[in-house]
Amino acid sequence: MNLKPLQDRILVQRVEEETKTKGGIIIPDTAKEKPAEGKIVAVGIGKLDKDGNRIALEVKVGDRVLFGKYSGTEVKIEGEEYLIMREDDVLGIIE
Amino acid sequence: MNLKPLQDRILVQRVEEETKTKGGIIIPDTAKEKPAEGKIVAVGIGKLDKDGNRIALEVKVGDRVLFGKYSGTEVKIEGEEYLIMREDDVLGIIE
Amino acid sequence: MNLKPLQDRILVQRVEEETKTKGGIIIPDTAKEKPAEGKIVAVGIGKLDKDGNRIALEVKVGDRVLFGKYSGTEVKIEGEEYLIMREDDVLGIIE
Amino acid sequence: MNLKPLQDRILVQRVEEETKTKGGIIIPDTAKEKPAEGKIVAVGIGKLDKDGNRIALEVKVGDRVLFGKYSGTEVKIEGEEYLIMREDDVLGIIE
Amino acid sequence: MNLKPLQDRILVQRVEEETKTKGGIIIPDTAKEKPAEGKIVAVGIGKLDKDGNRIALEVKVGDRVLFGKYSGTEVKIEGEEYLIMREDDVLGIIE
Amino acid sequence: MNLKPLQDRILVQRVEEETKTKGGIIIPDTAKEKPAEGKIVAVGIGKLDKDGNRIALEVKVGDRVLFGKYSGTEVKIEGEEYLIMREDDVLGIIE
Amino acid sequence: MNLKPLQDRILVQRVEEETKTKGGIIIPDTAKEKPAEGKIVAVGIGKLDKDGNRIALEVKVGDRVLFGKYSGTEVKIEGEEYLIMREDDVLGIIE
């Protein structure tokens, strides 16, 4: 089963942040930084502009992205958890 | 009796989510995931853009879609329950 | 006396929902479903688009429509009760 | 003394609603229906659209109109009470 | 010293409303009607429309205008009190 | 050190209002009139309009302007206090 | 690891404000001025305008900028703290 996001939405699989600090100390869950990291697994075809043309997304499948920890809607597809969010919820692409 | 949704609205029949986890354990209602699943049974003709052209919907009758659990307005047609919502409430199409 | 709604407004006469369930049992008022049903008795000439052209309404006089129970403003014309609402308050046309 | 409303504003003289029901029974003030009735005594020249053209009003001086009871701003001109409101506050024209 | 209002702003000198009723009875301050009256002493050059052209104001210096009692910002220029408001706060021109 | 405001922002140096009334009586701080006066020390290059052209500011460096007392963000540059605000926060130019 | 901000977002590294006053007295943290200072380390490719063209950013990598103390979202990249914000959160460029 696949999920095709509509318009400018993307489907993101959360990447577990490492719970170790630079010095290797494991920190409890509540101390982790705010933005979350994920991998894009599906993208929509883009929104329409005023002239009826699709606005291509700036992100693509496979991109690793940062996004606000509370962005998107959680969905479960075949037991796996994903997030559906709008491209505008993405803060940046990790290169 | 049929219902023709206006503009960019769609008529959706909720698909009951299976209340079993992957391992086959039945979970109570409150533990189910947030987004709901449904089948589109009717679609509007689309909104007008600034130049007076209809913007075709990205979804069509028969599509299985995910949407926020509290999206749309419940309607009862001949004893059957449906939801009328805007296309923008649809998170994605299940393929 | 008649009332000509302005712009994209419509004049709707509420159709009393049958207070019987499919099985014929009369249900009290508070148990009725949310959206209300009505018949359109007058329509406006439509809003102007950006180029100064009227946007024709998608509904017409005689259409039976569903709308949110709390949509519109109640008016009394010659002792009869009507609702004035915007076309956008109409959820769908019953066919 | 006259008042020329600006843009899409209109000057309305409230018409006292008859406080008798169809059957001739006088009802107290608080039981009257919500929308109010009035006669248009002056209209503005219309708003400008995006291309700098005036958008003609749909209502004209002399029209009897229905409007929300709390629409507009009360003004007193030579001892007479009027309401200044935007055309969009008018629900419909009584014909 | 003069003040040149920016864009679609106007400089208005409040005209004291006569505190006598038609019959000549002096009424206390709190009983005065809501909108205030003033004389325009300076106008801005107008806002820019989407094509970069100035939108001429509908009011001009010398116009007597009605405006909401709480519209605008009070300024004191050489001991005199004025109000700076947007043209849109003007309800109508007194002729 | 200089600060170049972005877009339609301006850098303003507050001019202390004289705390004497016309008659020469010194009034305490809380009794001063609302809008504040300042001198523009830097201006941005203007916002872009829909066609990608810069909209020139109506104010320029050296203008003495009135603005709402709580407009803008305070910044300290080399020990001096300034305000960064948008041109739209300026009520008028003192000539 | 690098982070490429999307659209009109920028990646900023905060510059610690000197906690000494002009006279050399160290002031506690809560007494520091409101806007914060930072250096831009990455910029997005700009938003699309209505015609589908990218709007170039007014800031560039290396610029020292002022921004509101609570602007942006904190991110940690390889142990270093940064802020992702929109260009519009930048108050001005320090020259």
From TrEMBL, chains A, B, C, D, E, F, G:
<dbReference type="GO" id="GO:0005524">
    <property type="term" value="F:ATP binding"/>
</dbReference>
<dbReference type="InterPro" id="IPR011032">
    <property type="entry name" value="GroES-like_sf"/>
</dbReference>
<dbReference type="InterPro" id="IPR020818">
    <property type="entry name" value="Chaperonin_GroES"/>
</dbReference>
<comment type="similarity">
    <text>Belongs to the GroES chaperonin family.</text>
</comment>
<dbReference type="InterPro" id="IPR018369">
    <property type="entry name" value="Chaprnonin_Cpn10_CS"/>
</dbReference>
<protein>
    <recommendedName>
        <fullName>Co-chaperonin GroES</fullName>
    </recommendedName>
</protein>
<keyword id="KW-0963">Cytoplasm</keyword>
<dbReference type="InterPro" id="IPR037124">
    <property type="entry name" value="Chaperonin_GroES_sf"/>
</dbReference>
<keyword id="KW-0143">Chaperone</keyword>
<dbReference type="GO" id="GO:0051082">
    <property type="term" value="F:unfolded protein binding"/>
</dbReference>
<dbReference type="GO" id="GO:0051087">
    <property type="term" value="F:protein-folding chaperone binding"/>
</dbReference>
<comment type="subunit">
    <text>Heptamer of 7 subunits arranged in a ring. Interacts with the chaperonin GroEL.</text>
</comment>
<dbReference type="GO" id="GO:0044183">
    <property type="term" value="F:protein folding chaperone"/>
</dbReference>
<dbReference type="GO" id="GO:0005737">
    <property type="term" value="C:cytoplasm"/>
</dbReference>
<dbReference type="Pfam" id="PF00166">
    <property type="entry name" value="Cpn10"/>
</dbReference>
<comment type="function">
    <text>Together with the chaperonin GroEL, plays an essential role in assisting protein folding. The GroEL-GroES system forms a nano-cage that allows encapsulation of the non-native substrate proteins and provides a physical environment optimized to promote and accelerate protein folding. GroES binds to the apical surface of the GroEL ring, thereby capping the opening of the GroEL channel.</text>
</comment>
<dbReference type="GO" id="GO:0046872">
    <property type="term" value="F:metal ion binding"/>
</dbReference>
